[in-house]
C-alpha cells in the first residue's frame, strides 16, 4: 500500500495524518524491519523499567516512553542494532491489593480460608488487565518496542533467574534473617523496605499527648513523656532521656504535684511558662536519671518484664526540639526504641518484643481492643494524661494502599547493603546522569546512607524465597534453579514455582533434622524488577554470551521517584553480583494535538531536567503553532515552488546531494545552519541532553520560514536564472533536517519524507528507502560550514528585529517607506558584516537610506551602567544605597572608560568588572524629538527616522496620483488586466493609473 499522496489544498490535521503513518508502519512492519536491517551492527542495550498492567498509563509513562523512544531511535539511525522488549511487573502489592479489595481480604486468615492457589489464580487473572490499553497508547505515541516478545516477572524463566541472583548473594554471605523494626503497611498486611516508606509522605494531624509516669521511689513525682502514637503505650517498656540534657523537677501549684521534664521544653506543659504557677525544685543531668524506675501505664506485660523493664535509659537520639525531652519506648514499634532496648537488656537480642497487633494493625490479646481515643480516655480517667493536643507533621503512607504506615518489629530476610556502600558510591560516580545533580546529590546522598534491604514480604503472589529451613532455622538450603529443586526434592517436571506449586515440597535434612520446609515469604517485587537486566534473558541459564558481551547496558530512563526505587535496587544487585553499575547512561525526568506535539512538549519540559512537570495543554498547542505548523507550511511552500518550476520551465525538480555549493549568501547560510543543527544534535545526544535540541530546532524552523523563504521569494519565482531558482528550491526543502529530527517527531518526518521521496533519486547505499526511519543519521558536512556567513546573517537579523520593533511601537507597517536608518556599532567587523547584506536590510525594512557607522560623536551614542541590585547588594551591603543613588549621575565617558579598564568609582566605592552591565544608547537632540526612535540589544544600536510622511508635508487624506510607462511594444497584457480589474484598483488606490504622458506640468520621466 503506497503512502497517501500529500494534498496541499487541504488543512493538515496532525492526529489524522499520524493515523495514516501508523497504518503505513503496520503495512510495512516498520519496527521489525528496522531491527532486521540493523542486524550485525554493534548492539545498543537499554533496560526498560516494567510497569504494572493493573493500572492505566499516564503522562509520566508517556514522558519516560518518549525519552526511551528518542534515544533508541537515535541509536538505531547512528549505526546500532537496538532490540527493544516491553516488560511487565506482574507480582507484588499492586496486584494483591486489588484482589484484597475485590474479595474483602483483611489478613492471613482470609487468604488461608480461600487457599493460596485460589488467591494466586485471582491475581494471575488481572495482571494483564490493561495491557491492550498500554499497547494502544504506547503505539499511538509513536514508540517502537516489541510487545509480542515481551517479558513478564511471572514467567518461570524470569523467576528462576531471580532465584539464581538470590542464591549468589547467599553464597557470598550477604543474606541474613533478623528481627528489625520495619515500615509496615496494615492496608497490605506486609512490611515494606525503607526506600518504599519514603515514596509517599503526607502532612497530617496526629494526637500529641504528654503522659505522667510516677516514680516508684517517689509517687508524688512523675516523669513527663511525650508521644504522637498513643496506640504504642500499652507496649511501653522504658523511658529514654538524653544523657547531656538538663532536666528539672518542678512543683505545679495548681495540681499540687511534681513533674520532671527537659528544662528547655516547659512550653509543652504550659502555654506561657512565664505566667505559669510552678516552682523549680531540683535539676538533674540525663545521665544521673539512668536506672530510675517508674510505675507502668498498663499491666499487660509487667509480669514478663518486671525485672528488666519500666526504667529510665539514656541515648543521644533524644532531641530538645519538641515534646518533653523524655521519650516513651515501645521496642516493637520504633527502630531506635528497639535498638536501645536491646543495648540495655530490656529485650533480648533474639527476642520478639511485645507486639499486640494482628496483620491488619488491630489490637489482639492481651491488649483490650483499644484505639487512640479509648487509650487517651483510659489515661485521662487514671490521671495520667497531663496535656492533650494535636500536631501537624509529615508522616509516611503506604505507596500502594494509601494507609498510614506503622513501624513494627518483624522477622525478615535482609540483603546486606552497608558493607558495599563505598562500592555503590564509586559505581554511581562512573554513571553519566542527566541531570548530573540528581546522581551527585539526591541519589548519591541516598547511597551514602544506604541500609540493609528487607527483601522479604509476608505475601502470596510473588517469586517465593528459595530457602528451605529446619524448624529451628539451624539448617538452611538456598536453591538456585528449578533443576536443583527437582534434585533436592525428588520431584520431576516442575514448571511453575509460585507458592501454591512448591510450598508443599520438602527437602530431606542432611543433618538429621527431619525435613526442611520452605519459608513462607516471597520476594519484594523491587528485587524482581532489580533483577531485570539478566532475568529478562534467563541468564545464566540461557543467552550467556549475549548478556556478558552487552552488560552493563547503555541506557536507562525513568522518573525521579525511581532514585529510591528501581535505580537503587538495580545498582545494589548489580554491584553485588557483577561489581559494577548496570548502566552507562541514565536519564531522570519530575492527544488532541497529535503525538509528535506531545512528544516535543514533554521532552522540552523542565521535567527532563529533573524538575517537576505540570502538563499544560496550552504548552502542546504552542509546539503546534510555533514548530509543527510552520514546518508543514515551509514544506508545502517547497512543494508549490517545485510545481511552479516544472510548470514554468518544464524541469522536474530532483534533490541533488552533490550539487555545487551556491554562491548566494542566504543559500550558504541555511546550509550552514542545517549543519550546525546536525552537529549540535550529535553532541547533545552523545551527552543525553535531549531537552536542548528543541530550542535549536525552533530556531531553524523560524530561520527557514521567516528568513530564508521570506528573503528569497523573488528568486523562487524565477526572477533570476533557472539554475538559481533550482538552488533556492533545493535549500527551501532542508531535507537533511527531517532526517536529523526523525527520532523526535517520527510521525511528521515520516509524512513529509514519503512525499519527498518522488524528489529524491535512488541511493544504492540505502538497502530499504521505504521509511525515513530506515535511513542513517546525516553526517556533518564540514564544507558547508561557514562561520563568517552565519555571523553576518545573525547580525543582520539583530538589526532587522530591532528596527521591526521600532516600527511596531510606532504602528508603522512595513508597507510604509521610511527615509533613513542609522546602525551603530563600535566594531568595524560588525559594521562590515551588516553592510555586506545591506540590500536585504533595505528591502525587508522598506528604508531608502541606511547609514552604517562606528562614529560615536556623529551618531550621538552614549553609555550608561545598570546593576543587578540583588547580586551587588550581597557584595556591597551597607554601601549599596550610596551606589544606587549615585550611579544614574555617572557620566557616559566614565562608563565607557569602565568598559576598557574594568574599574569605576561611584561615590567613593570602587566597582570592578562584572559588578555592572554597560548599555549603549542614542541620545537624541531636543530638536529631533518625534522624528527619530532608537532601540538596542546592548550590542548594536539603531535609529530610525519615523516621520518621512510628516517631513514631506503629506497627510493621510492626500490623493495619490499613479502613472505608468512601458517600453515600446510592451505592456499590453498589463493594460488589459488594469481595465478588467479597474474597480478593484480604484478602490485600493483611490486613483486610476494614468499614462505618464498625460501627466500635467511635471516632466515626463518621473
Quick take:
With 1006 residues, this protein is of the alpha/beta class. β32 and β33 form a beta hairpin.
Task: Name a few traits of the molecule.
disordered C terminus, 40 helices, alpha/beta, four-stranded parallel β-sheet, six-stranded mixed β-sheet, 1006 residues, 40% helix
Structure notes:
There is one protein chain. The protein has 1006 residues and is of the alpha/beta class. Helices cover 40% and strands 18% of the residues. The protein has 40 helices and 35 strands. A 6-stranded mixed β-sheet has the order 11-9-10-7-6-14. A hairpin with a 4-residue loop joins β9 (246-252) and β10. α24 runs parallel beside α26 (693-711), α25 (665-686) packs across α31 and α31 runs parallel beside α33 (838-845). 40% of the residues are buried.
List the strand order in the largest sheet: 11-9-10-7-6-14
Rounded radius of gyration (Å):
39 Å
**Uncertain spans:** 605-615, 1002-1006
> Got a strand count?
35
Structural class: alpha/beta
User: What fraction of the residues are assigned to beta strands by DSSP?
Assistant: 15-25%
| Average pLDDT taken over every residue | 87
The largest sheet is: 6 strands, mixed
Q: Give helix % range.
A: 25-40%
Total helical elements: 40
The shape, in one word, is globular
Sequence-ordered SSE layout with sheet pairings:
Layout (H helix, E strand, L loop, with lengths): L13 H15 L1 H8 L8 E2 L11 H19 L7 E4 L4 H11 L4 H7 L1 H11 L4 H10 L5 E7 L3 H16 L3 E11 L4 E2 L2 H4 L3 E14 L6 E7 L10 E4 L4 E7 L4 E6 L3 H4 L8 E8 H4 L12 H4 L5 E4 L11 E4 L5 H9 L28 H10 L3 E12 L8 E11 L5 H9 L2 E3 L1 H13 L4 E2 L1 E2 L9 E3 L6 E3 L3 H8 L9 H4 L3 E3 L6 E4 L3 E2 L1 H6 L1 H4 L8 H6 L3 E6 L7 H13 L4 E6 L6 H9 L13 H33 L15 H22 L6 H19 L1 H4 L5 H12 L1 H6 L5 H11 L30 H23 L8 E7 L3 H8 L2 H8 L1 E7 L2 H4 L1 E6 L2 H8 L3 H7 L5 H10 L1 E4 L2 E4 L4 E6 L9 E5 L4 E5 L2 H4 L11 E2 L7 H9 L1 H8 L4 E2 L11
Parallel strand pairs: 1-24, 2-3, 7-10, 8-12, 16-25, 24-25, 26-27, 34-35
Antiparallel strand pairs: 4-5, 4-15, 6-7, 6-14, 8-13, 9-10, 9-11, 15-17, 18-23, 19-20, 19-22, 21-22, 26-33, 28-31, 29-30, 32-33
